[in-house]
Amino acid sequence: MILYLFLIIAFFLFPISSIALMIRSWIIDERTSVKKVHVKIMELLSFIAMVVFLCAGFLLNDHGVAGGLPLHQLERTLHFRDAYATLSNDYVVTIICSMILSAFAYWGLKSNRGALSPLLYTAASVLLIANVIFAIVYFSHTGFGHYGDDSAGATPIILLHLGFACLIGLYAAELKHSANAFMHSAQQEEIVYSSKWLRFMDYFRQKYYRLPLLWSIAFFPVMLIVQLPLVLFGQRPDSFIRVFLETSSFHYSKLPAPPPILVPGDGHYLCTVSVRGHRKIVKPLRAGLRHGNRIVVNRQLLVANAFENIIEEYAPRTHKIIRRCYDKYGYPLSKHINQPWSADVVYLLMKPLEWIFLAVLYTVDRNPENRIHRQYSELRK
């Protein structure tokens, strides 16, 4: 009896510890305090317990009776020999895959707090949020009436409840710590958002951090929804770079955009597009420097060059092959872009590639907008 009681306490200790970690994330800011060893051990043990509970729960759920099929009931005692599966086994593989990905996302956020690229941070946070929502839905789906039930279906439900309780506590705590790290980074960089809706979201976020504890807990889901677009779409180059790029000096950003002077035999068809297309379509941004000559650059050109810079940095051999092909065909193509409409067409055709380049940059680079804004400036050297 004592051993049985001990096992029950041990089982429920880990979910309680996870919830305690979640509450701790609102009280203690890990950026300003050293995490104690016992907290790290508690996090690790709670994570292991979560995995064990969920694996056992899903395994036992697999033995449940599929919906729509009859249960088996003993004729004399009227006890059921089996029970319905709480989750359809035809689709549970998708949920398991999502939870495996969320486990990697959890440790990715924890070990690289404040250092992930915007796209990876957003993707990891979305995975954690989605699994927390699924866990809450599962609790409402099954209810709590099976505790103390001796039926065959009680065990997988209790195990999944324990696992999902650990999941909610651990994931919510990490989302809070990651949100604090981003808020601190935004304050340090003094980011100014150009879009009205981003400015409104930033205003809400700043107000959120001044709320009393209970209100901040209540509004935390809303704050997460507000913060993710700020991370993904609110990227700006660091102040050190902006102080040069956002001037009217000769070499750097915001220079008047004169017609480009390109060296014969070294044509760049995207440069041609940025100056010859209609301004409303190709959207020239500023003047830049290419081989010592001033050219007009637009967002598409900067993104393409930043992508090339990434390839050159991580795969130099591949970059040489791409560069050779580009030099071979780029200049002949630029000769045919001699009308505004043809420049517009090339710009629109390049749009899908620009989005792919941007996705790669936001995935592999911690500060993608820094790299983008450095292109065609003295800061590129």
Describe this structure in words.
- With 381 residues, the chain is mainly alpha-helical.
- The protein folds into 2 domains: 2-190, no CATH class; 245-380, no CATH class.
- The chain has helices at residues 2-27, 37-61, 92-111, 118-142, 154-189, 196-208, 213-218, 220-233, 239-245, 269-276, 279-282, 299-314, 316-335, 340-364, 368-374; strands at 284-290, 293-298.
- The chain has a two-stranded antiparallel sheet with strand order 1-2.
- Strand 1 and strand 2 (293-298) form a beta hairpin.
- The radius of gyration is 28 Å and the shape is elongated.
- 31% of the residues are buried.
Provide key terms for this protein.
381 residues, mainly alpha, 2 domains, two-stranded antiparallel sheet
What integer is the average pLDDT? 72
How many DSSP helices?
Answer: 15
Strand order of the largest sheet: 1-2
- Elements, N to C (H/E): HHHHHHHHHHHEEHHHH
Outline the low-pLDDT stretches: 237-267
The computed structural class is mainly alpha
Question: What is the C-alpha radius of gyration, as a whole number of Å?
Answer: 28 Å
How would a textbook summarize the main sheet?
A: 2 strands, antiparallel
Strand content: under 5%
Number of strands: 2
Count structural domains. 2
Morphology? elongated
Straight-line distance between termini: 74 Å
What's the short story on this structure?
This protein has 381 residues and is mainly alpha-helical.
Produce the secondary structure layout.
Layout: H1 2-27, H2 37-61, H3 92-111, H4 118-142, H5 154-189, H6 196-208, H7 213-218, H8 220-233, H9 239-245, H10 269-276, H11 279-282, E1 284-290, E2 293-298, H12 299-314, H13 316-335, H14 340-364, H15 368-374
Antiparallel strand pairs: 1-2
